[in-house]
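Table S2 (text version). Query chain:
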Amino acid sequence: MHGNNMLTVKRSALALLRRQQAVLRLVRDTPGLVLESPAGKELLLDKQRLTYMLEVLDGEISKVENLEAVIAVVGTMKAGKSTTINAIVGTEVLPNRNQPMTTMPTLIRHTPGRKEPILIFPKAGPILALEASVRGRLEELQASGRFNALETWHQDDGRKLVQRILAGRGDWIAGPHVGVDEIFIVLRDLNDLVRLAREAPIGLSLADDDYDEIHELPVIEVEFTHLAKTTGGGLGRLTLMDTPGPNEAGQGDALFNIMKEQLEKASAVLAVLDYSQLLSTADEQVRGALSVLSSQLVDRTFALVNRFDLHSANSMGEAEVRTFVTKALLDIEEERVFPASARWGYLSSRLLTSLQSGEDVRDVKDASWFRDFADLANLDEEERDDPEELARQAKKFWRKSHFEPLLTQVIARAHQQAAQICVDAALAKMNVYGGLIENFLALRKCQVTQEIARLQCMVDIPDQEGAKESLPELRRQIEGIAEHLGDWRTAQRMAFPEPVLSRVLVKKPIKVDGKAGLKVSFRLNPASLPARTLIRTSLHQRDGTPLQSRGLHWHTFGNLEWDDSHCMTDPQRPHDRAVFFPFAAIEVEQAGVMKCLARVTLWGPPGEIGRAEAEFELTAE
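Corresponding structure-token output:
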């Protein structure tokens, strides 16, 4: 998108975000409108939820102001989140160790030109205050001889941490912290401090509002080496967010809630699944959180099936893994599932980058990543000193890692389209919140109206006279807020009109009624369609030669009338439609691999009203 156009889009999105915040505050602060949740029951909306929604919109304002797309990397402990992030960045910015490392979300921001990573804490105060409180509790435990009650005390790193805290160490967190080694030490101490504070004998934690906005989180700035090799970049900036795994250190509830909150605040999500444990209980928690947020994340959820290097001839292959994930685990298309080995990808790309930059092999032989790669490739001492052999092995393991598709199709594309992604994510959240408020206001208006009618039947009851006067006023206030929300919705549709047709995807091969073929799916916006619309889906070679086409009609109340039986619908996605093309019906004149187009075209008065396409390859025999 052109720079000037994107700046206009940015201003419009910021105005809508602030207008919706004003509506949410009206709802929250109007006396008698939002009820308290009864014990053990959850209302459609309460003041706590409204306050949280306002925090989320604060985060969206911050991201849109900076045109920043934030991809949350989420997964269970030991699924390989840190290794995945290191592989994406191209260098080790997050430490790997046997103990869990992520109790506080950390941002990793692509910063062109910054070769050595730097860690910054925009808000260090709450961490230092937590440490001071922990010190007080530790002194009490020390005085009573109860250190053995602390699990941390029985770990080497933990015992050293306790001793440092008791000794007092001043402001160790503010930084900035430069270089991998210093970043490792600070992140290790931070996560161990948070974990120590939660132990039962201490029972402390950071307050819920200490780091409730994305711009308050610690951030590592570093150039992503793979993005440095790409030509150009978009207007925005790309940031990854390392999130806690719900099963880390047995602190499931606390860390699961942190993970879920950060998912809601992200622009997109990369779920890291362990190939060897695809149906684990902890993975189920991750999937549940993603399912709840599916209406906000829309088409911005991706899955890396990590440790795919463990697959064998007797286990699921690449295509089978994609199918399994989409049918049994996550509600996403197969095109957004990437079986790969993050470890192989990281180690091989790290070595290739080192060799291409002209580093002397002798200078990196003692680095842990070099030793890990040499062991992986089973290199002898002579091969470890041979740059040509190292390059050959690195290229081989890079290919075998299957990591490049994730980099090119998700990371590089997100970098190029960061500005648009962050705006789309903000709009999606506003749409969900707008619908929630609309439903809530309609429900409360109905409840208040019923209560007014009930009171009108009660004559001369002094205790009810105040309610008879206040409830009609509350109903007027509800109607006023609903009008404000309607004005916001009108402004949104004027600034960001929804396309009548979007998201054309081609999936192949599939089977319907025993026939093999391909599926072309697309998304419609019924609110923008005329009462009667002709929808035609067609296949073409890139030169325009038609291969096959099918059509249907759209009627006023959403009834579909197909011209044949090859239709598919998904009750979970009522606006998605798909057409099945049996291979036998596709007219092909020559054998070989053809570059093709799937085209969806809409016609209605007075003519063509929408068109969208997707490219795919077709192999004809």
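Notes on Table S2: Confidence is low (pLDDT under 50) at residues 553-565. The longest strand covers residues 607-620.
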